[in-house]
Design goal:
Length: 336
């Protein structure tokens, strides 16, 4: 079964053709990073305009690379939530028009479910149930993947997401947007024990995350040092920050796996590309005897192959949408 996936939740206009939720025939991504870099982050209005300009060509390229036409497609999957509302509206509107014109079924896909599904493309043996750590620019959570379309959240962020914290810490250190990749590179040259940073906890919620205080600690340390004329070692701060955030993410995931009885762990989302998070997860899973699944780097960030993969499983589960489908800026994964 061939699914055409469309993704436009933030600043990547993407389209892909995926077979049976596992095999990529094409995966086209048009990125806006260079344009948003000069503003230090994504400008929603610009992102929406670029999606409008790029979406037709991206979908056309995805079909061409897959050596197929719309007639060969069995269903169209589109990200409808969560994300930047203007950006989402471009993708959902285009997908609705395409579905109505072609008579193809339209499948609404939750963006975070798509990130989880990226692992199905990379690891054909991965099947629910398992535990998944999802960490990205806008989301951080630990979820039970009970089935391909059934999720239960064990822990979630109460404020900043992990990726957001990476970007904000990077900015104060003088790194360009997107900051996560620059933190990762600098951390390889630094001492993770150079700066003592806090490990924020959420009282009464063992598996919830809070990264706002950690981010603020980095900002305050840098500003205080500047005021005193003491130079900050950027590599050391990057290493200390990355080590701390990795420890928080991974230690909570390992504890949740033990408590809930999971032996299979997956990681998903943009932050799953971070070398510190990947290495620490691999080590802790090995120490605990857990089986670990990590997405390849090219499927960690936003892309449409993951949306097409999840759309396949949603289709099998009977999920459909019509012309009344609307974009939703905020929607919990366990409320779909």
């Amino acid at each position: 079964m061939l699914i055409l996936g469309i993704e436009s939740s933030c600043d990547e206009t993407a389209a892909a053709v995926v077979e049976d939720g596992r095999i990529i025939h094409s995966n086209i991504v048009s990125t806006q990073i260079e344009e948003h870099k000069k503003f230090g982050g994504v400008v929603p209005e610009i992102a929406s305009r670029r999606h409008c300009e790029n979406i037709y060509g991206v979908v056309e390229a995805a079909l061409s690379e897959a050596n197929c036409t719309l007639a060969d497609i069995d269903a169209i999957g589109v990200t409808y939530a969560p994300g930047l509302i203007g950006a989402l509206l471009v993708g959902t509107s285009f997908a609705k028009g395409l579905a109505m014109a072609s008579g193809k079924p339209l499948v609404p896909v939750h963006h975070i479910a798509g990130h989880i599904a990226a692992n199905y493309i990379a690891h054909h043996d991965l099947k629910p149930p398992y535990l998944c750590l999802i960490a990205s620019g806008g989301h951080s959570m630990i979820a039970e993947i009970k089935d391909y379309t059934k999720f239960s959240i064990i822990g979630r962020t109460r404020d900043d997401a992990a990726g957001e914290a990476f970007d904000k810490a990077a900015r104060v250190l003088g790194f360009p947007y997107p900051g996560g990749v620059h933190i990762d590179k600098a951390a390889k040259e630094g001492n993770p024990d150079a700066y003592k940073l806090p490990y924020p906890k959420v009282t009464g919620s063992e598996y919830d995350f809070s990264f706002s205080g950690l981010k603020t600690a980095v900002i305050n340390t840098v500003h205080n040092s500047e005021q005193k004329g003491i130079p900050i070692n950027k590599n050391d701060m990057a290493a200390s920050f990355q080590h701390t955030i990795s420890e928080i993410l991974v230690s909570k995931t390992m504890a949740a796996a033990r408590e809930y009885g999971y032996k299979t762990i997956a990681v998903a989302g943009g932050v799953s590309a971070n070398s510190g998070v990947r290495e620490l997860t691999e080590r802790r899973c090995r120490d605990n005897g857990f089986k670990l699944y990590l997405p390849p780097l090219n499927l960690c960030g936003d892309n449409a192959a993951m949306i097409a993969a999840q759309a396949y499983f949603d289709y099998l589960d009977g999920k459909r949408a019509d012309e009344s489908l609307n974009a939703v800026a905020t929607l919990p994964l366990d409320n779909i």
